[in-house]
Amino acid sequence: MNVSPRPGASAPDLLAPAAPLPPSAPARAGGGASWLTWLGVLPFFAFALLFLLMPTAFLMVGAFQDAQGHFTLANFRELFQPGVLDAYWISVKVSAASAAFGALFGSLLAWAAVQGRLPGWIRPTLLTFSGVASNFAGVPLAFAFICTLGRVGLVTVLARKYLGFNLYSTGFSILSFFGLTLTYLYFQIPLMVLIITPALDGLKREWREACDCLGGTAGQYWRYVALPVLWPSVLGAALLLFANAFGAVATAYALTGSSLNIVTILLYAQIRGDVLHNQNLGYALALGMIVVTGVSNGGYIWLRARAERGRR
C-alpha cells in the first residue's frame, strides 16, 4: 500500500520515533502485598492466635504443673494408669472403626456420583447433603439417633411392630461402642465424600481410554492405574477422619454420658467437675490428644501433597 506523507512533512519527520507512552504506576517492590491485603487476613490470624495457639500453649504449660503451679511430671505418669489407658484405647478403636467404615462407604458413594454415570442431579444433591451432614454433630445428632435407634426409637419400634424384630435382643445398644461408632458414621461418611470427590475428578479420561486401547479390563485399570493414584488420597482422608472422631466430645457425651469411658469424656470430667478433680491431669490428657491428632493431620498433609504430585 502506497502511503503518502502529509503536506509539509519532511523525510526526517516521518522517521522520528513515536511519542513515549505516559509512565505507568510503579510496581510494588518484590510484588509485596499492600497493608489492605494484610488487613483482610487479620481476622484469621487473630482467630488462630486466640482459639488455637494460646489455648494450646496454656495446655502445654498446665500439663507440666501441679495444683500449686510448681513444675512436675506426675501428670504424665498418671496417663499410664489403667483407667486412662483404657480411655485412650477405646477412643482409638471408635475413631479407627468410624474412619475405616467412613472411608469405605464414603469412597463408594463419591465414586458412584462421579464415575457411576448416574443422573446429573445426583452429584450436586449428594455434595450439598454431605456439606450439611458433615457439620451436624453434638447434642442434636445424639438426640436424633436416640429418637431413631433408642429403645423406644422410631426405627426400633417399627421393626418390632411390623417385622417382629427386636433390635435390642441382639445385644445392640445405642449407648455402646457400636452405637457410638454408628453415630459417628453420620458425619464421617459425608466428610469422606467431600474430601475424596476432587481426587476422583482428577482421574483423567485418557488413562481409561489408553487402558481400553491396550486391551486392559476394568479390574486391571483400577488395579494398575486408578488405585495407585487414589490410595494416598484415600489413606490421607482416612487419617483425617480418625482425627475428626478422636477429638469429638459433644456427641459422645450427649449420647453415652459416662457409660462409655473414652478419653474426651474423661478429659471433660477432670476439668469440669469429677469427684477426683485434677485439672492439670486434664491438661496432660488434652496434650496427649493433641499429639495423636497432630500426627494424624500431619500424615494427611503429607499424603495429600504426594497425591497432588502423582496427579500432575
TrEMBL record:
<dbReference type="GO" id="GO:0005886">
    <property type="term" value="C:plasma membrane"/>
</dbReference>
<feature type="transmembrane region" description="Helical">
    <location>
        <begin position="283"/>
        <end position="303"/>
    </location>
</feature>
<feature type="transmembrane region" description="Helical">
    <location>
        <begin position="224"/>
        <end position="243"/>
    </location>
</feature>
<dbReference type="InterPro" id="IPR000515">
    <property type="entry name" value="MetI-like"/>
</dbReference>
<keyword id="KW-0472">Membrane</keyword>
<dbReference type="Pfam" id="PF00528">
    <property type="entry name" value="BPD_transp_1"/>
</dbReference>
<feature type="transmembrane region" description="Helical">
    <location>
        <begin position="85"/>
        <end position="112"/>
    </location>
</feature>
<comment type="similarity">
    <text>Belongs to the binding-protein-dependent transport system permease family. CysTW subfamily.</text>
</comment>
<dbReference type="GO" id="GO:0055085">
    <property type="term" value="P:transmembrane transport"/>
</dbReference>
<feature type="transmembrane region" description="Helical">
    <location>
        <begin position="132"/>
        <end position="158"/>
    </location>
</feature>
<feature type="transmembrane region" description="Helical">
    <location>
        <begin position="250"/>
        <end position="271"/>
    </location>
</feature>
<feature type="domain" description="ABC transmembrane type-1">
    <location>
        <begin position="88"/>
        <end position="302"/>
    </location>
</feature>
<feature type="transmembrane region" description="Helical">
    <location>
        <begin position="165"/>
        <end position="187"/>
    </location>
</feature>
<keyword id="KW-0813">Transport</keyword>
<keyword id="KW-0812">Transmembrane</keyword>
<protein>
    <submittedName>
        <fullName>ABC transporter membrane protein</fullName>
    </submittedName>
</protein>
<feature type="transmembrane region" description="Helical">
    <location>
        <begin position="44"/>
        <end position="64"/>
    </location>
</feature>
<keyword id="KW-1003">Cell membrane</keyword>
<dbReference type="InterPro" id="IPR035906">
    <property type="entry name" value="MetI-like_sf"/>
</dbReference>
<keyword id="KW-1133">Transmembrane helix</keyword>
